[in-house]
Specification:
Chain A: It holds the Pfam family Fer2. The complex is a heterodimer. Chain A is built from five helices and five strands. By secondary structure, chain A is of the alpha+beta class. In chain A, α2 packs across α5. By secondary structure, chain B is α+β, with helices and mostly antiparallel strands. In chain B, the strands form three sheets. In chain B, strands 4-5-8-6-7 form a five-stranded antiparallel β-sheet. In chain B, β2, α2 and β3 form a beta-alpha-beta unit. In chain B, α5 runs antiparallel to α9 and α10 runs antiparallel to α11. The chains are: A alpha+beta, B alpha+beta. At the A-B interface, β4, α3 and α4 of A face α2, α3, α4, α5 and α6 of B. The structure holds flavin-adenine dinucleotide, iron/sulfur cluster (SF4) and FE2/S2 (inorganic) cluster (2 copies). One FE2/S2 (inorganic) cluster binds next to loops of chain A.
Chain lengths: 174, 328
Amino acid sequence: MNEEEIMLRVDCEEHRIIVDTRTTLLDALRERLGNTSPKKGCDHGQCGACTVLLDGRRANSCLALAVAHDGAEIVTAEALAENGDLHPMQRSFIEHDGYQCGYCTPGQIVSAVGMLDEVEAGWPSHVTGDVSAEKISLSDAEIRERMSGNLCRCGAYANIVPAIREVADERARR
Amino acid sequence: MKPYHYQRARDIPGAVAALAEQPNGKYLAGGTNLVDLMKLEIMTPDMLVDVRRLTSDRIEETEDGGVRIGAAVTNSDLAADRTIRSCYPVLSQALVSGASGQLRNLATTGGNLLQRTRCVYFYDTTTPCNKREPGSGCSAIDGHNKDHAILGASERCVATHPSDMAVAMTALEAFVNVHGPDGERRIPIEELHRPPGDEPERDTTLEHGELITAVDLPPLAFASNSKYRKVRERASYAFALVSVAAALDVEDGTVRDVRLALGGVAHKPWRATKAEEALRGEQANEANFRAAADIELEDAEPLRDNAFKVPLARNIITRALLELSEER
Ligand SMILES: Cc1cc2nc3c(=O)[nH]c(=O)nc-3n(C[C@H](O)[C@H](O)[C@H](O)COP(=O)(O)OP(=O)(O)OC[C@H]3O[C@@H](n4cnc5c(N)ncnc54)[C@H](O)[C@@H]3O)c2cc1C
Ligand code: SF4
Ligand code: FES
Ligand code: FES
């Protein structure tokens, strides 16, 4: 049989499971570990609903094979809240009504959290005028470009951008 | 998805030996292209040799003043690298114009070079496609072909190569280091991808089992004055209709040297050598840029739906060169 035993640390909890080598990280999370926070939108890397933080970086869990990420540290939107307190990004999405059906929302929120770390690290984007610049100033255009890997079929973008904007501004003030 | 055996190797020779024994095996890196194609059963390897943690994930300066990029360096890390951003901005720009933030975190340098075409018929297993099923025919030649090639195609296949990164690397005359069953070799990137000819099922000149270990960028002083321009059907997260990677060296209004490569127009990243030759020693102005683009595009053979790519390519070549001559 083409099976392998792997270990995944998901939302701070260690799990040992035996998976078919074909299992994606997304299916391992949802079907094997019962964590339905990451969603299956397209299953082909085209929508971002399955976004998780994989070893600290945002990634599409639908194209990552579970066996290839043996030992990985995974954070899903579910674990962003601490001791019942919502993460600032979660709170901001609620305040700004950054969703309608909510299907893309866990992916949007994890992606936004990972994205702000990338900005802090000074990573350029497609709309960064001078890619050699030291610092990124996070305009709305920058937010839109950096979040383009997360589609929302309800079209809640008009509220998603301000939701992320507020958290980014708060972070900048700190 | 078809069942397959998954294997990790201890070292590079071990990985190469493991794959050499499996004619239907494949290397796995980030998986963002291979896993997608395996889900659709367009690719059906019976073994995967995982090389993501095997090849180097470092970006290092070389003795000659160039840069060596390990095959496992992610597209995000490469785009964010300080040296790349200041010395080879065209490469950083090409990378961030491709895919999405979360995909670039998984995608690797080696995998990006070897990603397969986005021809819609290649993806539709109910239609004939010589690349997917040799000898079955090409559905695109007389089908919907707005995305297809205008240069260097064949009667067997008119697909384009989808990588943005590879177009920038072509303009930079990169070398691809490979380790295969018969030892190591260093391939000029222009010789990595091949025209479709009679064998469109072969995207590259690599032999089975050859592993990409690193990409070398030679030093090129004027590459600091370079840029990538990409035109697509939406503002972000889409493949190129046409793209251009350009680097320009101008002195006293005269073109001393220039590098030009096009994406979205051929089965491989298209080095525009004719346009480059036409420009060296000429005045750096719009009329000359446009005329040089026209010389390159004289050979274009548009299909039913993609004649727009000819003026589009001409315009973005001209625009990119103009911007590079003005920004100095
Ligand atoms: C929705 C979507 C949008 C995208 N948009 C763009 C875009 O706009 N522009 C763009 O350029 N790309 C785009 N991509 C493609 C993306 O860049 C590639 O999927 C990615 O670069 C592949 O890298 P990987 O490491 O995941 O490769 P894998 O999927 O792991 O491998 C790809 C191929 O390379 C082979 N391989 C991998 N590493 C090696 C090695 N070291 N030696 C030999 N063979 C190797 C594998 O066997 C396989 O055949 C997009 C992808 C998706 C899913
Ligand atoms: S253009 Fe190439 S990839 Fe597309 S259908 Fe024709 S043979 Fe297949
Ligand atoms: S489900 Fe992974 S990107 Fe759509
Ligand atoms: S809220 Fe419905 S898909 Fe985004």
